[in-house]
Amino acid sequence: MNPEPLDSVAAPMPTGGMRRWAAALRRELAHNWRIIRADRLGSFGMVVIVFAAFVAVFGPWLMPHDPYASLRMTDGRMAVLQQPGAEFPLGTTNLARDLLSQMIAATRTTMIIGLVSGLISIFIGANIGLIAGYYGGRVDNVLMRLTDIVYGMPFLPFIIVLIALFGRSIGFVMLAIVVIVWRTSARVIRAQTIALKQRQFVAFARARGASDLRIIYRHIGPNILPLLLLYTSFNIAWAIVTEASASFLGFGDPNALTWGGILQDLWVSGYTRRAWWWFAAPSLAIVLLVSAFVFVSRAYEVVANPRLADR
Amino acid sequence: MLLEARNLCVTYRSVHGDVRAVDGLDLSISEHEVFGLVGESGCGKTTLVKALLRLVPAQTRVEADVLRFKGHNLLELPQRRFRREILMREIALVPQSAQNSLNPVQRVGAQIVEAIRAHSSTSRGKAHERVAELFDIVGLQPELMDRFPHEFSGGMRQRAMIAMALVFEPALLVMDEPTTGLDVLVQERLLRRIRAIRERVQSSILLITHDIGVIAETADRVGVMYAGRLVECAPTLPLFEQPWHPYTLGLKNAFPSILELGRELISIPGSPPDLSNPPAGCGFAGRCPFVLDVCHATRPPAVDVATGRVSACTRTADIEHIRAAAAEKVTWHC
Amino acid sequence: MALLSVEHVTKHYRIGRSLGAALRRLPPNWIKPVEDLSFSIAEGEILGIVGESGCGKSTTCNILAKLTDATSGRVLFDGEDVTHLSSAALARYRTQVQLIFQDPFDSLNPRLRAFDLVAEAPRALRLWDEPEIARRVPRMLAFVGLPPERYAQRYPHQMSGGERQRVGIASALVAEPRLVIADEPVSMLDVSIRAGVMDLLRDSSRRLGFSCLYVSHDLSILTHLCDRVMVMYLGQLLEVATSKDLVRSPRRAIRIRARWWLPCRCRTRPTSARRSRSKANSPNRSIRRQGAASRRAVRRR
User: Fold this and answer.
1) Which residues, other chains included, contact C71 with Cβ-Cβ below 8 Å and sequence gap of 6+?
2) Which chain A residues have any C-beta within 8 angstroms of a chain C C-beta?
């Protein structure tokens, strides 16, 4: 036997664990893109998300007016509580502010808060789930009791206390969201990890000399990737809703406008019943964006359940 | 003739195109006979059975010149009549991995009673008696009727599934890989039990497996299947003593024999052809050490090589030379 | 000197008691998959272990591969006591002792390609740097009969059972171990492809010079492959003999039957074969009773 060393291995393997994780992630996303495209609701959701991202990124250039400026109409009067029309496509507020500009400006903040909190919460939840599920025993007990305690924490009193102690700011809103949202993903990923831990390929990895951390992140990790992406999508959706609720109740940052904040302005102004356009725009936007993320998650279900997918 | 099939073809749809799982198969099973169908994984055995029982996915095409069972033309029988009269009653299937088909949260006896009452209007009492009778036939103690599946060992679960299949005394009992996943000792017991069942129940048995040893002990006649086609068919003893087809010779080489303890086991190199693109000629031509050009071009017909024996090989004339050469390792691995 | 020496190894599991039993101070129940096992493997030898399911052979494999620890007893590898190892010593041990798994359909990570699966041991154990791994892995794939240009990038679900098992073997052999433990590597494969995989193991053992511990429930495979065979029953070692001696003149009356493919109605079997086959049909009751008695004694303790 004397086979020559093969240099023609088809695709060069990236070296280094992190790069391999990144390569795996890229492959997974590319594959998932195909899956989402195949599902109509998922495609629709993706379109909405891309559109919202576009508005978020290019917001400052798209806004027709300053969102905080009180505007006058062409005939010189203050543009107070104007219905949607040619001049103000989404109408104006009681302070003569253009709603369209407000919506565009708020999109960026809402998206950032939603994405960042969602991603942080899935990061925390996934790691806790993986570690608790893999190690079991005391580690699992401690982490799951922690999760149970957090489950017992009601959102509203928690955020009230936070705001009362530290004042209203984006940071604390995001903190409150992260604390509430990571719980479910931790439980779910822990369950999946426990199931995967029993599989022979984990024993295989251990017999080949893999350390515990290597098994968790290199072997079990890629197998929970579909579930992880599913819950990332969910978490972002939940983060957006939670942020809108918090802002609506008045706990949002007064300097950073979000869609929930626009609703809060409406509520505080007392014109809820009369200025339907003021109510419609942010509500519809929230519903649409959250639904978009949920539709995309639904398309992922095919990936999470391997029997439905054809790789 | 209990079951007769001529030129049976089963084609199913997959994302990669049409796959010809069964390609022109001729099969005949008589009454009170154990017919063993042997072949590697992926040769189409399970698809054949599923096609017979109409358990194939919706878009599968099942075509044959003749497909008769006890006088009924299976191709033209309406679905309702098929389900009422044939499925479970005349032809019963013990599927692959049957051991895992039992509901883990229901007692075994109760599951069989449920099956009986779902397919006929028998009273609960009579159904219980029937189950007790079946347990006796398959060699399980009657008190096991009230146990859960996890309290049964692998061999016992397999026997419970056979009991379920025997409920309506089918004329044809089909067993798909009954011994896979079991220890040799358990396999031995199960095969002995299958022989005992056969004496008591008078059904024909179609036994499908990849293990020639199982066939050797249990079957009256053997069909060797490869790439969706039947390459050889003969009574058991003559098949093992004097195989006619090179594939059968290859299979014989791969099995240890108590008569030749020191003999080297010779495997067949290569792998079966891709059935989404079935070969024009002989299916085994890609791996056969005795291949000629004509083998790639035309499909060899199944010819009668002796009484009751059929072989689909172009080189039946050279069989003595082929048999001698097949016993050497160099023929297969040069 | 023996490469591996197992001395009086025992493995016990405690089964939980019900609350009532605990309150009544009943002793806990024990399962003893392995009881007072002692044997040794020489350099370059292929030793077989045969026994029915539940006889403790898989547990023995797991103890030797360090997937679980023995409750008592010693394991010596190359003269060194390896019964309890620190993680650094464990890593060193794993470069010398590797395990081949039974189930080719579950033992390969479905998300890793063949290349990564074979490269797992050298990467996890930090044996070589990436360029060296990129040289050795394709060579090992070719060695086990899987041309790397076609197989290195395949996922497990794109390979047949036999091919997957070859990947498993390649992943065990790439680290150049001195002892390979094969836990029923062919029992889940088609009978017609078993010979190829077994031949691969035997030829590799000769060429690469490792010892092999081959576990199976099928004696016919072992007599073909192994120099010596151990018979295990109920966690204990019954006897050790060379393959030929085991079949021809058994020392004890209990035998494990083999899957010979002779038709049972064949009358051309030589009488000696028929005699050993009929002996196999009636397991020695006294040994069975001994086993049962010892289990009862254990429970009473």
Assistant:
1) C10, C11, C12
2) 1, 3, 5-6, 8-11, 13, 15, 20, 24, 199-201, 203-211, 214, 219, 222-223, 225, 311
CB-based contact A208 C168, cutoff 8 Å: no
**Residue A17: inside a domain:** no
Q: Which helix (H) or strand (E) holds C35?
A: strand C29-41
Residues of chain B neighbouring C102 (CB-CB closer than 8 A): none
Residue C165 structural domain: 4-300
ipTM of this predicted structure: 0.81
The answer to whether C257 contacts B185, with C-beta atoms less than 8 Å apart, is yes
CB C174 within 8 A of CB C142: no
**β-bridge partners, C98:** C180
Distance CA B289, CA B268 (A): 10
Question: C193 to chain B: which residues are within 8 Å by CB?
Answer: 40, 254, 267-268
B234 CB within 8 Å of a chain C CB: no
pLDDT tier, A306 (very low <50, low <70, confident <90, very high otherwise): low
3-state class (DSSP) for residue B182: coil
Question: Is A200–C152 a contact, with Cβ atoms under 8 angstroms apart?
Answer: no
**Separation of alpha carbons B173 and B36, rounded Å:** 12
pLDDT at A3 over 70: no
> For A14, which residue in chain C has the nearest alpha carbon?
C130
Residue C38 contacts residue C6 (beta carbons within 8 Å) = yes
- Dig out the tokens for A167 from the structure: 């004042």
The answer to whether B259 faces chain C, any CB pair under 8 Å, is yes
CA separation for the pair C26, C75 (Å, rounded) = 33
* Predicted TM-score of the model (pTM): 0.80
Q: Which residues of chain C have pLDDT under 50?
A: 252-301
- Domain interval for residue A250: 29-63+90-304
When divided into structural domains, chain A yields a total of 1
Q: How many domains does chain C have?
A: 1
Q: Record the tokens describing residue B91, joined without a space.
A: 């032809």
Residue C70 near residue C49 (C-beta atoms within 8 A): no
CA dihedral of residues A45, A51, A56, A60 (deg, nearest 10): -160
Residue A255: partners with Cβ closer than 8 Å, 6 or more residues away: none
- Domain assignment present for residue A84? The answer is no
Instruction: With CB atoms and an 8 Å threshold, state whether B210 touches C191.
Output: yes
**Nearest CA to A185 among A112, A236, A116, A220?**
A236
Q: Tens of pLDDT along B33-60?
A: 999 999 887 778 888 888 888 888 888 8
User: Is position A151 within any domain?
Assistant: yes
Q: What DSSP letter does each residue of B119-165 carry, written as one string?
A: HS---HHHHHHHHHHHHHHHT--GGGGGS-GGGS-HHHHHHHHHHHH
Chains sharing 3 or more CB pairs under 8 A with chain B: C
Do B41 and C190 count as a contact with CB atoms less than 8 A apart?
yes
SS3 B55: coil
Q: Decide: B6 and B24 in contact? Cβ < 8 Å.
A: no
- Measured between CA atoms, how close is A311 to chain C, in angstroms? 9
Chains B and C form CB pairs within 8 A to the count of 107
Classify residue A277: in a domain, yes or no.
yes
Closest CA to A174 of A154, A159, A157, A153: A159
Q: Which residues contact A154 (CB under 8 A, 6 or more apart)?
A: none
The DSSP secondary structure of B243-293, one letter per residue, reads: --SHHHHHHHHTS--SS-TTPPP-PPPS-PPPTTS--SS-TTTTT-TT--H
Task: Compute the distance between CA of residue B268 and CA of residue A243 in angstroms, rounded to an integer.
Answer: 66
CB contact under 8 A, C124 and A13: no
Chain B positions in Cβ-Cβ contact with residue C260 (cut-off 8 Å): 213, 256-258
Query: What are the tens digits of pLDDT across the range B105-160?
Result: 899 999 999 988 888 888 889 999 999 999 988 888 888 888 888 888 888 888 89
